[in-house]
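Exercise 7 asks you to align residues with tokens for two separate proteins.
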Amino acid sequence: MAFASFLVLLLIDRDQAVLERTATAETERLVLDDGSIVWLTRGSRLKYQRKSDTEIRHAELEGEGFFEVAKDPDRPFMVACGSMTVKVVGTSFNLKTGSEHIELEVLTGRVNLSSPADKTGVDVSPREKVIYSKDGIVEKLTLKESEIQTIIESTDYDMRFANTTMDKVFTKIEKKFDVKVVVENTTVNKCRMTADFTDQSLEKTMSMIADLLDIEYRIVKNEVTVSGKGCD
């Protein structure tokens, strides 16, 4: 991903300390308390704190990042980008700004980009890209497959599996969500999975797996425990 600068603000629980993180690796993953994931590019800085579960989610970011926002219709996710505002509920998008324009690339979901001068703004649909210049000119384009691959190439966003053994699925889950998966019956690891968990939270991912394999799971802090009959 190319680097640029923009601002995003993310609110999480006011009783908790404010967290500030500056990415030192080429791509650095942060799993937020609401289940959203942000992949920051090197030098980008994210600052966030938790607020009430009833409030709108916001963030503050300097740099460039790819956002996979956890679905929560009751708490929109607001992104302040200079004088522009991005509003989403549950979606994945990449955002870049420069001195002359803002570039928003949407992979899934629907995103609204607005400003004080244009409160209605423009809606951006999946696989669309909007370039919003500082003089108010909006250019909407189709997002190319090559552009999508460039956005996600350094992330764990893609969670598609085709006849994959569960040990490999669990390894990918551990890496993406920064958790430890403990499998009580190791024969579960021999089961195979064909499914797409892209854009799903950890809870939703494990719920889908449980339904498909008839297993049980529990999530306690950063540990996921899996139990069930497994496969021979």
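Second protein for Exercise 7:
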Amino acid sequence: TGLRGAAEDALADPSAIRLELTRIEDSIAEDPSAAIGKSKNLIEATAKAVLTELGQPVPNNESPAHLAALALKALGLDRQTVAAHYPIMGQILGQLNGIASSVADLRNAVGDGHGGSSALGLDLREGRLAARAAVAWSCFMIETLEERQRSGGTP
């Protein structure tokens, strides 16, 4: 994906993002549940990397949705501020944060992070949907960080 290269360019330490992308790629065809779990991990790794790169504290034991919201805000992309100037973009940013929350919820329900009472019949397309959503979220975050770095501006 373009995410791997963007992370290499924008982050001092892109290793966590590289690792989660590799794990998604390795599991997607054979184990959609594992790919969903790794997709949640990718969102968390990206949020933490953005916060670290911007010199912001990285809280421990926060939900992926909260980490995502903190990273969006650190990049100057909190929904309310953006919506004041561009209402539709504010709506999209709210939905973008919803992706982080929904992928985490999906992982809790059917991913590889919690033992379940039965193995749900997830198929490849469902695992790919979660992975693609996580990659889209992460790409947007890293590309926004890159833009901020290039312009020398702050969020």
